[in-house]
Amino acid sequence: MAPQSGRVEKRFLFTASVRIASLDRPWLVESAMTENVSLFGARILVKDRWRPEERAIIESQAGLDPCQARVVYCQQLNTGATAVGLRLARKCADWMRPKGRMG
Asked: Which residues pair with 62 in a beta bridge?
């Protein structure tokens, strides 16, 4: 059997406004945009430099419950922005569901 490569979780291209706050550096809080999401992760575009393994809280502007996350990587882009890969502490199946909507 060949080793598996790539992600196990399916990623969805999805743009949403989020707020990310560092638990390790309380002064580091910023608004950001998701680039893609999955049940346990997200790639977001930020302005500041985040550190791998840094703990954060991510909140969706759509009103989802805040979720603790860990920075997996921080990648400087040619545009001047920074892409941050986050691993969520718990499953977040509601990324694309508006607040108050059931089902």
From this structure: none
Residue 95, pLDDT score: 61
pTM of the model: 0.79
Query: By C-alpha distance, which of 89, 84, 82, 37 is closest to 66?
Result: 89
Residue 22 β-bridge partners:
56
Specify if 80 maps to a domain: yes
Total number of domains constituting the chain? 1
> Buried b / exposed e across 25-58, counting CB within 10 Å, b at 16+?
eeebeeebebbbbbebbbbbbbeeebeeebebeb
At 32-82, the pLDDT tens digits run: 999 998 888 999 999 999 999 999 999 887 766 788 999 999 999 998 889
34 lies in a domain?
Answer: yes
Give Cα 89 distance to the centre of its chain.
11
Tens digits of residue pLDDT in 24-42 = 999 999 999 999 988 889 9
